[in-house]
Amino acid sequence: MHEGHRERLREKLESHGEALTDIQILEMALFESIARKDTNPVAHALLDSFGNLAGVFSASPRLLRAVAGVGERSAEHIRLMGLLLERINQSRIVRRRMYNFAEVSDFVRGRFSDEETEKLEVYLLDKDGLLLCVRSFSAARRDSVAVDSKTLNLLLSEAKPHGIIVAHNHPSGVAEPSGGDDAALLDMAQVCRMQGVRLCDSVIFAKGELFSYYHSGRLAQLLSEKK
After folding, report:
1. For the chain, which terminal residue's Cβ has fewer other Cβ atoms within 10 angstroms, N or C?
2. Residue ranges per domain, the chain?
């Protein structure tokens, strides 16, 4: 019975995890430390003792162990998850903003200044221009890198950003885009259009120099020619 219940919760997490209740979240958090027992009563006892999830995950191991069914391993696991959540929240407070080209160029220079082989990065942004996450793609060859449409489509489907900025470098030292760069950008633009995501810019870094598709007008030109 417990194994079937655990599997159903895992399936719910995979399909629509946001619909999990606080009790179900706690149940799953306890799977790792309570292997073969029903974790539902322990989850209820934790919420009854500390009031809400914030209270549970901020409680000390000593207080957690005072709850029926919570052993040393479970207390350590819950506290560790609480510390992880605290660190994540702290990092969100100082999330980098990429609202204008000065902010974008500063970030791109820091990411690419020491790169000797070609690399491509996708910066996923929320509606306020705050960076949600970065996905990096390394080159199979020294001078060629791309992200295929299937991979980008999956990334946008999962993260659901408001917009993206693409950046890659030219180890050759010439920041001017190539025909291959244009073609790859058009493929990404098509995926963004299907996902309802704004393609804000594509930036090329080469020996300290930057080329912006948006600010040069090349992005608008390519997209208008594609129509």
Report:
1. C
2. 2-93, 101-226
Distance CA 112, CA 221 (A): 27
CATH top class, domain 101-226 = alpha beta
Separation between Cα atoms, residue 177 and residue 211, nearest integer Å: 8
Angle subtended at Cα 91 by Cα 87 and Cα 96, rounded to the nearest 5 degrees? 170
Question: For the whole prediction, is pTM greater than 0.85?
Answer: no
Residues in the chain: 227
Name the maximum alpha-carbon separation found in the chain.
68
Indicate the SS3 state at residue 63.
helix
Pairwise CA distance, residues 80 & 88, whole Å:
12
Residues 20/12, Cβ–Cβ less than 8 Å: yes
Q: What is the CATH number of domain 2-93?
A: 1.10.150.20
The string of DSSP codes covering 137-199 is EE-SBTTB----HHHHHHHHHHH--SEEEEEEE-TTS--SPPHHHHHHHHHHHHHHHHHT-EE
Give yes or no on whether 2-93 and 101-226 have one common fold.
no
Rounded CA-CA distance 33/75 in Å is: 9
